[in-house]
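Exercise 7. Predict the structure of RGAP1 protein from Emberiza fucata.
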Amino acid sequence: EQGLQLLELGGSVEEDCIRIARCFEATRQRCCRLEQDGRRAREQLARVEAERAALEVKLKHARNQVEVEMKKRHRAEAELEKQERKLQLVLELLMGEPWGSEALSREQCSVLSALAGRRLGAPLAPSRRSSAVDESCQSLLSHSDISYDRTEDDVVRS
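Solution. The predicted structure, encoded as tokens:
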């Protein structure tokens, strides 16, 4: 466009050629800068994509580890409940038998009475539970309701 305008203005042919050559040189330099900018942008994109891929691998491993730990916790809690039920049955049997209170000392009877008075499913020793999760309050959501969002996994990559 500038080249056409220069030709229309008139003047000597040599001056017009020099102006056109300068315009071409300016355009060439601009193209070189844009090409360098494009190359830098592609390199940065490659680095960011590699970092994203590494983070996705870490996320996948973390999700798998969370799943494994949740399964372990569920198994441990199920075992704890099973043992608590057994203990409750033993306590009820001992406290219900007339010979049970005769064979046990007063202190043992007192401890057994206290244990038998507990409701089924209450924790035996709160200190045994993980201190990272406050389980003393009743919540609308239990630990089994914990989940993580996998919607990010379905993002279409172009």
